[in-house]
Automatic annotation (TrEMBL):
Superkingdom as given in the UniProt entry: Eukaryota
Acidic residues bias locations: 155-207, 214-228, 235-249
Organism: Seriola lalandi dorsalis
Protein name, entry field: SH3 domain binding glutamate rich protein like
GO-annotated cellular components: cytoplasm
Pfam family name, one: SH3BGR
Amino acid sequence: MVIKVFLASSSGSTAIKKKQQDVVGFLEALKVDYAQLDIACNEENRMWMRQNVPEEKKPANGIPLPPQIFNEESYCGDYDTFFDAKEDNLVYSFLGLPPPPGSKEAVQADKADIVENGTHAEETNAEGNLDDSIEVPVEERNGDAHSKEELAQAADEEDEGEGGEEEEGEVAEGETADDEATEEETAGDEAPAEEEEAVEETDEVTEDTQAHAEEEEEQEEADDDREEEELRQLEEEEEAEVQEEEEAE
């Protein structure tokens, strides 16, 4: 199978030239056999390309632009579809070619085939059918490579693990219950002590308040006595002045 790339050697469009160089350069990097067919200098190539590009792939004006890629007579696509296939590591599928062993596309195809059919792509014969001479274990086809012994051993370990977890759970529950009881007792002992402290603080506050009130009462009494004394002295002074005036007369 030969890959045909239709190009325009004398195109005046820089974009078309760049796209053509990208396609050719990538095919050379992959070492894919291809043939360049010039539509600028060969009218037959131009007509063949236009006639064999599917109608649904042609632009609105009906004239497809290069580069256009074919696998023999089969249409592969234009630059945009080629670029998408390159980004997705699906260039060989785009070209209709089997990917070389070890390539990213081959690895992806092998994984997809295992997921879908449970078989390895390299174990198929040339006709694409599963080679009967290569036996694939049923467990591996189903995606389960564990033997019965491994499964039984895993089940025993799981049972032992569950038993140990149950014992640990019971011990942990017992310790938790003891801790809760101790905390309740401690809380019960602390509550009366806190109440006693609160009562003592209240008594102290009451005593301080009473002492302060008594001091204020004593101060008020002293002030009253002082005022009375001052009034008495004023009255005596006034009386003395009246007597002096009377005597003077």
